[in-house]
Amino acid sequence: MTNLRKTLKVGVSGVRGIVGESLTPLLVSSFASSFGRYVGGGRVVIGRDTRPSGEMLEHAVVAGLLAVGCQPVILGIAPTPTVQLMVEEISANGGIAITASHNPVEWNALKFIGPKGMFLDSHEADELLDIYNQQDLNYAEEQDYRDVRQMPDAFEIHQKKIFKHIDVRAIRARKFKVAVDCCNGVGALFTRPFLEAMGCEVVTIFDRPDGVFERIPEPVAENLSALEEFAKTAGADIGFAHDPDGDRLAVVDNLGRAIGEQYTLVLAADHVLSENPGIVAANIQTTRALEDVAASYGCEVVYTKVGEIYVVEKMVELDAEIGGEGNSGGVIWRRIHPGRDSYVAMALILEMLAVSGQPLDAIVRSLPRYCNRTKKFQCPAFAAREIVRHFCRKYADQNPILLDGLRIRMNKSWILIRPSNTEPVLRLTAESTDEKEVSALLEQFSREISELQQQFTR
Fold first, then answer.
1. Which candidate in 29, 33, 101, 420 is catalytic?
2. Residue 199, number of CB atoms within 10 A of its CB
3. Judging by beta carbons within 10 Å of its beta carbon (0-12, 13-18, 19+), is residue 419 exposed, middle or buried?
4. What's the CATH code, domain 2-152?
5. Predicted pLDDT at 458
6. Cβ neighbours around 134 below 10 Å, total
7. Domain ranges in the chain?
8. Which residues pair with 252 in a beta bridge?
9. Rounded to 5°, angle at Cα 348 from 335 and 434
10. 291-300 b/e with 16+ CB inside 10 Å = b?
11. Do domains 2-152 and 157-366 have the same CATH topology?
12. pLDDT value of residue 423
């Protein structure tokens, strides 16, 4: 039972766990029924990434929804942002994305989407969990079962909406050569035709849609050596790397160098703000380079907790057009839909290149440069909370930001210590204009975290 608790994560990011261990078809079907009851029946959009367990869990979700009188609308394999967008497009009561995003292949998850195409917030997630725990589901009578709809053209609708707001003609005129690391996820099906429709020459690696990941699925710089070499050898103008479900994006420049996942949002925000200055919303794990870029347009960055829904809620509250999560390479452009979207990010960055006429390495050199590194510590939730409390007490006199975990600002440097929403880990992030300072901060705080881990996990 201990192992099951460690691997099942239930919260604002949905329900995720190791398939067959903590995440079973029975549990998935029950959560789907609970969600169907929560949204009041009606149509519910379902999409999944390419993980081998995805089809099995899709069937479990369909069964759970049918049982409470919902009409499942199946997209099949589709990017998570496409699932979110289609909830809005067909006026569905909700949606379920079957994906564990950047987690290893043995994990899978259900991400629950409300009627506005946004993930459930913490209060809504609590209401859903109450329904699940009470199991007061009111199963449908036989005459009330709905039919199952298939919607194979969902991504085409998604693409058309992006192209409506992007200068596709300018991009086509440049005839960019683009290298793509599809991570054997949804990008293996959708990214080549998407880029080719913008006149790009596309070369790909890890492009089998089988969900058997040939690199660590989180698209951060240290996992992109294959794309760096591939893009350089191919003479690509730019390289893109997906996560398995297509909401995150990392970028490699024309010299074959990963620019860092934090700079995906910085590039997109710089481009959008150059045409439409305004407030930017970003999570607290985002680079200060975003503040510097926003300030150059007379704009402000407002920080939120880590988690897409927190950024989206703040964007809606402040009527911000652009925002995202720097630490995940997550770009949110509300003009398309309120969610992280790697296809939006690719289109914005290609438009930026087309309009500027500069190579990507020159654009990146013109941006404020910070060194940003993150380290993970395997840590049960209780120990992670106690470690954060320890640092809160220790640094109370330094006016720490306690929005999500603990962030301490030190001149041009900062550190963030926070428990993950999606894994049983504690994350330590350090950023500075000086790489040696980042290494020193990571070493200092890592040593203390390791000592505290031993103390709280005895």
1. 101
2. 17
3. buried
4. 3.40.120.10
5. 66
6. 10
7. 2-152, 157-366, 371-456
8. 239, 258
9. 115
10. bebbeebebe
11. yes
12. 75
Copy the structure tokens of residue 296. 């150059």
C-beta of residue 453 within 8 angstroms of C-beta of residue 379: yes
Q: For the residues 293-302, what does the mean pLDDT come to? A: 98
* Token pair of 178 as six digits: 């683009």
Q: Which fold has domain 371-456?
A: TATA-Binding Protein (3.30.310)
3-state helix, strand, coil in the chain (%, to 5): 45, 25, 35
pLDDT single digits (tens) 173-224: 999 999 999 999 999 999 999 999 999 999 999 999 999 999 999 999 999 9
Fold of 157-366: Alpha-D-Glucose-1,6-Bisphosphate; Chain A, domain 3 (3.40.120)
Q: Using the structure block, give the residue that is written with the tokens 């439409």.
A: 276
Dump pLDDT digits (tens) for 210-255: 999 999 999 999 999 999 999 999 999 999 999 999 999 999 999 9
33 catalytically annotated: no
Question: In terms of DSSP H, where are the helices of 214-320?
Answer: 225-234, 262-275, 289-296, 308-318
Q: How many Å separate Cα 208 from the centre of its chain? A: 21
